[in-house]
Amino acid sequence: MISIKGLRKQYVTKERQIIAVDDLDLDIKEGEIFGVIGYSGAGKSTFIRLINRLEEPSGGSVTIGDKDITRLKKNDLRIARQDIGMVFQHFNLLWSRTVAENIAFPLEIAGMSKTDRKQRVQELIDLVGLTGREDAYPSELSGGQKQRVGIARSLANKPKLLLCDEATSALDPETTTSILDLLVDINEKMGLTIILITHEMQVIRKICHRVAVMEEGKVVEMGDVLDVFLHPKQQITKKFVSQVMGNTEEEDAIPSMLQDNPEGKLIKLQFIGESANKALISQLAKQFAIDINIIQGKITNTKAGSYGTLFVQITGEDAEIDRAILYVQTKTSVELEVILNV
Amino acid sequence: MFENVNMDELLTATNETFYMTIISLLGTLVIGILLGLLLFLTARGGIWENKVINAITASVVNVFRSIPFIILILLLFPFTNFLIGTIRGPSAALPALIIGSAPFYARLVEIAFREVDKGVIEAAKSIGAKTSTIIFKVLIPESLPALVSGLTVTAIALIGYTAMAGIIGAGGLGDYAYFYGFQRRNFDLVFICTIIILIIVFIIQFIGDFITNKIDKR
């Protein structure tokens, strides 16, 4: 649905030129929630503004549907923008307008009649869960409520694409969750394509289907969220994954495990997708004459299922341990690795 | 105590002051907003970014703001004479009053617009707003409290200007206080004119503050 080719943005200052977005190629599918993660200064904020040309690209193209956004004339661009919603980190509501009037703003711009407007605004208010707050001013709302107004406003003209610029970065964790749930809800109900940028891996983990990691204006890693979580390749990606997972460099911890657990086998279990939901550990303990001691681990949920790593120590007869290992390797989707044979 | 005060004359003078203040305030409002808008929109990073127009507008504004008002009136005599047909009376004071205070208000308008959250303007652009929509539905409503309080300050400065214009025969309370009061040594008259001007200033300030508070929903 969205095809980005060779997208570039450079700023020229007196001393030097800064390349904010460097030759970016991306394809985003219809109905997808696509996340872009990076530290501040990575160019992600510029990138999302290039999509609806709040920033003019220095080169390359952005095609949404069959429209090449980068080639549109000023007036056509204005009309195209009515089909692209945008949600901002700091909400950017008009303080002089009530909730209902803020949401009606894009409808006024699109030239909708007053009666239609009123009806549509009410639908949107109900959709984002602000029923009863129609006549409140933004200053009377909490951060989460303001962002709900922002989302309702961005959806007013029934866009096909929603751009989220750090939409949850100014919110506390609990409110973030409720806003993310709302975005997923909208994505599923309306089949809306969402591109979001963030510096929080939590956001990517909770709602994104695919993720691109940006560093110095380039996409350094991209893929399905689960793949990226499981097999982060770049150093920066590993750092982001560790935001959610704790330390991903588990090998560092092995010497200390050895000291504390000098018998049996030390085993690393990697859970991918649904298998984390099975009661694997108790199953093994019941079926085989072994003892399982959980040493450390972390399991987390992503949009595509659960994922995590568990370090366990198995003690018992060697033959029995081997049978248990074989069972895990053949009967489940859990990846097993014997780290240490004592 | 106020044996030299003629109520009819005082009333006429007060009316003339009101007349000059209100008409020139309206002129100042229109021209000030237009100039302020031009300054804001043509500034660096503005919607109509244009160095040349911005520099020209800024210098015009600065020049007229720098000329002391009493000198401005004298400089404008030929222009006033051409426009109004006379250089005496309240109407003849209007061009100088407007030209003297509009640049001042223009700067206040520019500052008010600059205080509008850039993000809100960006949001309006992102939903496909035209420049005119941004001006009338974002910039002006979002800066309205600052525009009103700026106008209050300007109105009070204008009352001072009308009194100065009075010295060279524009009519109004300044004229009355100077020619009938000061020059004839009727100091009670100077005093009463001062009191009336003070009352007008207080009333304007009160109304301005009231409206500003009323419309500010931040």
UniProtKB/TrEMBL annotation, chain A:
Biological process per Gene Ontology, one example term: amino acid transport
Keyword Chaperone (UniProt): no
Entry keywords, A to Z: Amino-acid transport, ATP-binding, Cell membrane, Membrane, Nucleotide-binding, Translocase, Transport
CDD domains assigned: ABC_MetN_methionine_transporter
Superkingdom to which the source organism belongs: Bacteria
Residues of the ABC transporter domain: 2-241
InterPro entries, alphabetized: AAA+_ATPase, ABC_transporter-like_ATP-bd, ABC_transporter-like_CS, ACT-like_dom_sf, MetN_ABC, MetN_ABC_transporter-like, NIL_domain, P-loop_NTPase
A Pfam family the protein falls into: NIL
GO CC, one annotated term: plasma membrane
UniProt-recorded Gene Ontology molecular function terms: ATP binding; ATP hydrolysis activity
Annotated family: Belongs to the ABC transporter superfamily.
Protein known as: Methionine import ATP-binding protein MetN 3
TrEMBL record, chain B:
Domain ABC transmembrane type-1 span(s) in chain numbering: 14-208
A GO cellular component annotation in the UniProt record: plasma membrane
Compartments where located: Cell membrane
Topology in membrane: Multi-pass membrane protein
Signal sequence residues: none
Top-level taxon: Bacteria
Main location class: membrane
Name of a matching Pfam family: BPD_transp_1
Keywords, sorted A to Z: Cell membrane, Membrane, Transmembrane, Transmembrane helix, Transport
Membrane-spanning segments: 20-41, 53-77, 146-169, 189-211
GO BP annotations, alphabetical order: D-methionine transmembrane transport
Similarity section: Belongs to the binding-protein-dependent transport system permease family. CysTW subfamily.
Name of this protein: Methionine import system permease protein MetP
Organism from which the protein derives: Oceanobacillus indicireducens
